[in-house]
Structures are given as C-alpha cells and as structure tokens.
Specification:
Shape: globular
CATH class: Alpha Beta
Strand content: 5-15%
Helix content: 40-55%
Distance between the termini: 59 Å
CATH superfamily: P-loop containing nucleotide triphosphate hydrolases
CATH topology: Rossmann fold
Number of helices: 11
Largest sheet: 5 strands, parallel
Strand order of the largest sheet: 2-3-1-4-5
CATH architecture: 3-Layer(aba) Sandwich
C-alpha cells in the first residue's frame, strides 16, 4: 500500500469517527425530544426477530432504533433513560421500534419496562423449542458475543440446562449461563409469556416463528393491521441471521418429549391449537 493511500485511509477513518462522535453528542443533547419505543420485539432469541425487525422497518410509519438490540432493560439499565431515548427518532408521527430478544427471558426486564413504557405494544415470536435450542447452540459455537464456543457437545449442554431448570430456575438473570447456555430454558415459553401477559394484557402479541418463515409478507402485514397502519408489500431480498449448520437436531425425540408438556401449557395460556407437531 502506498504512503499516500495509507494517509488517505487514516483521514477517512478519523473523519468517520468524528462524525459518529458528533452524532452521538447531538442525539444525547436532543434526547428529551425523542420518542420512547411504541413497539418492542421482546423475543425469542433465534426466533426470527432480526428478519421481523428489518421487515417492519420497511414501513414508512415505523422508525427503528439506532441499532436493533439495545439491551437497555437487561444489560444497560444502569445508563440514564436519556441514553435510551437518544437511540430513537425525534418525536413525530412515526412508530418507534426496538427489538431485543433477550427481554422475554430476563427476570428484571418486565418490571423495568412496565415503569418506563407501560403503554408500549410488545411482540413475541416463538419458534419450535427443539429447533430453537439447536440454533442457539450453533450460534454460540460460532463465537456468540466473542465469548468463545461451548466446549461441550450439544447433548451434554442440553442435559446440563435441563438439570439447571429442574434444580434452580427457568427465567434468566443476565448471568453468564443465562445469556449463553440457556438452550432448553429459553424454549419453556409458558412462564415467560404468562408474566408479560399479566402486566401488558392485550398489548402483547404472541406469534409463531414458522409462520414468519413460510409467509413473511402475510405475517408482517398482520402486524401492520394490529398496529393500525396500512399494509404494504415487503421487499424481501435478504434473510437475516440464518446459520450455516446441519439442521438435523441431535436428541430431537428426547427434546420433543421434554418440551411437549411445556408446549401444552403454552397452548392453554394462548388459547391456540397445537403449534408444533409433538
């Protein structure tokens, strides 16, 4: 690389950092004038939330956050609420949207959200818990969050999380095991949904991930209708968050047997027929 080109690239990088710093300062200065989110996608991890977030943001009446996952109500709550506001649009006629799929699973998020955004609408998309568990495991194996891979086999990791659920708790607490190794517990949906439903009632919309995967346009337009905004055709040119791994799940039958009674509790809670065929 020539000296001139190196200097030019260094100046370009410096300029980019200065612009980013200036935008951050401006956003913080104007944060009292910014929206809090009207809609939050709360979960589930590996349930298609990234695709759903980007599809919803195609609507001109919806404005996404500065980044999809802010983690304010679980990992960043020590920051001032003005920091949280700084991530959204200036107040106007648009719906502000955030999506942090860890919210549904974290013990502290519900009461924190109910204090700051009690009028918000919440969306939870739930995936077949067996496929979801294997997807999370492979996500961790790819170095999720730069923490490194899980040294255990999928079978060992799953058995360990089942023991943890039986001997300790299901709902997470933003601890290491909860964030990275909750392969099974995140798929025990009923207690997670029940607690949010108790506080938010009809403001909580619970949908099935497989319907998003099979018909994204119809799925997202049903949400537009729920939000009271006009429907529109999506531009689906990219699929987000898809892992490159073998989709045949080890221990599928054992996991299906484990999840079956938990799924029945979810169906009863939501008043729906069987979502997954086991």
């Amino acid at each position: 690389m020539s000296t001139f080109r190196k200097i030019a690239e260094d100046f370009a990088l410096m300029g980019k950092r200065l612009l980013e710093r200036a935008e951050k300062t401006w956003r913080l200065a104007t944060s009292p004038l910014r929206e809090l989110p009207n809609v939050v996608i709360i979960g589930t991890q590996k349930g298609g939330t990234t695709s759903l977030y980007h599809y919803l943001c195609q609507h001109p009446r919806i404005g996404g956050a500065l980044s999809k996952e802010l983690h304010y109500f679980n990992l960043e709550y020590k920051k001032h609420r003005l920091w949280y506001r700084s991530n959204f649009d200036l107040q106007g006629n648009r719906i502000s949207l955030e999506a942090t799929p860890d919210y549904i699973f974290d013990e502290n998020t519900l009461w924190r959200m109910s204090r700051l955004i009690p009028e918000a609408k919440l969306i939870a998309v739930l995936r077949d818990p067996v496929s979801r568990a294997y997807s999370q495991y492979n996500h961790v194996q790819r170095g999720m969050g730069n923490w490194g891979a899980d040294p255990r086999s999928f079978e060992e990791a799953v058995q360990a999380d089942i023991r943890f659920a039986r001997e300790n708790r299901v709902i997470g607490r933003s601890e290491y095991e909860d964030i990275f190794h909750s392969y099974v517990r995140r798929g025990i949906y009923a207690p997670q949904i029940r607690r949010f439903k108790k506080v938010y009632g009809d403001q909580l919309l619970v949908l099935r991930s497989e319907d998003l995967f099979s018909d994204p346009n119809g799925f997202v337009n049903s949400i537009f209708e729920w939000l009271g905004i006009e429907q529109r055709d999506l531009q689906i040119t990219q699929k987000y968050g898809r892992g490159n791994y073998k989709k045949e799940v080890p221990m599928r039958k054992e996991l299906e047997d484990f999840f079956e009674p938990h799924n029945r509790k979810l169906y009863e809670l939501l008043g729906v027929k069987e979502w997954w065929s086991y």
